[in-house]
Queue: 2 jobs
Job 1
Amino acid sequence: MQTPQFDLGTLLGTPDAMKNAVKQIPCEMLHPYHNHKFGLYSGERLEDMVESIKENGVLSPIIVQPDGGTYEILIGHNRWNASKIAGLGSVPAIIKEGLTEEEAEMYVIESNLMQRGFDNLRISEQAAVIAQRHNEMFSQGKRNDIIRELKMLNGENDSTSGPLVQKYETRDAIGNEYSMSGRNVARLIRIDKLIDALKILVDTNAMAIRSGVELSFLSEKAQHIVAEQAEDFKIDMKIAKQLRNAADENGNVDTATIIRIITGTADINPKPVSIKLSDDIFSKYFSKNMKKKEINETVEKALEFYFANRKDPT
């Protein structure tokens, strides 16, 4: 697979050429977009990109914006990641200055849609796109400007220079754009309100979309408690509905109720805290050949000795 190649000649021939000059930026001065909701390439797709970059370099610049003394990536997260793996010290980039939060978000979303296609996105990624479309602050005019620029970068003809596309303010209109029903649009908007741990369950089919919709009405705190329990218990539609019905108008549900609904018991037994020793501490007191049981016994004896000889403050 070849890395995408943009027609820079078209871009640099525009009046904005000076604003879009390509510069080499060290990889360590770049970091991902703060609200990046799209997964990076992995497996064969990543390997192909790394090999292409090793052989040909980065043929198309990424797009970034200044962020203090560093730069935040808007477009090109995969090229940046593959470049680091390939051993490159820097990547070509176009620096965008003065973007609003909404404009920066548009660059991220539109580029991923153009590169991957909506149907190839994960459920949570589709949800992010649909939710952004539904946002009243998402300017349709600015979106068209950015789409035109991205198409120019990609060497495509500008097909949006005619009348502006109708604003997608309702779920049915958005559904027409993505060939889905208004009901499915509404569901995806709700999925975008889930915490990341629950989105992963939906993406991996460990939890049904409709169950995720019900859980999206819970507060963030309640969702985190549900996610912890979901590590051991499957959250089906029945449980999800019970949790939503148990919540107050702000989505709050107490821990005892959440555990009772999910586990079917009234027990509140918090999971034991897992402590990981640092490599320095482990190598200082234990050898690599020691068995786990022996290590646990040693730690237990040390703790017993410590607490038996600790003087409580008076």
Job 2
Amino acid sequence: MKSSQQKMNIYGQEFDSRLLIGSALYPSPKVMTDSIKASQSQIVTLSLRRQSPEQRGGQAFWQQIQDLGMTLLPNTAGCHTVKEAVNLAKMSREIFQTDWIKLELIGDEYNLQPDPIDLLEATDVLIKDGFKVLPYCSDDLIICRRLADLGCQVIMPWGAPIGTGKGLLNPHALQSIRQRLPEVTLIVDAGIGLPSHAVQAMELGYDAILLNSAIAQAQDPVLMAQAFAKAVEAGRAGFVAGRMPEKQVAEPSTPTLGMPFWHQS
């Protein structure tokens, strides 16, 4: 049995923390940095579309992210076409000096569901161009399998639509993906709202959790970041420890064998 302290592997790079955190929606830059530090995360996502260091429009924000000394995961948030996503990925690689890209390609404005067809096409283009793609997708086994076939070593299915905080809407689908893709690093991305949701995902055997809104929009983001750090660790330990078997009937936790038999006089 593997230790719960085993490092997480993303494209050959190892990390102690299994919590990835976003950098948007915080009430202030200070709350953002304090929350990210409290989360103990080692990977932070950011969007070139929202903050453009090459144009100095988000220079203060960019400097704060750099000062954290974390691994950067640029994303293509807000892209709706293959061309748009590929171009933004190339710009992000040049600006942030990394070939990692969190590939988001939205197909529906209402629930922000990823477009599965364009996602596969963009993934193929980016991998052939040397990118290490971390695709955000729905909890569809076939899509996840096709992404793995294209060369994705990391896949990020949603728990629920982005920003809803509803938790894992379809645990069975997520568990099927985990069972069928044992060699892929799987990260639940989107829909997590509570630390208990993170525990549930980690207990299914997922390798990590990526979230933003659940911390950034909490009443106390720093405290919530601490809670998620503990939840991810607890969920991982619970999975590695191995749960007790479920039973159809009750079974006493205290054995009767060897107990004294009392009888009234």
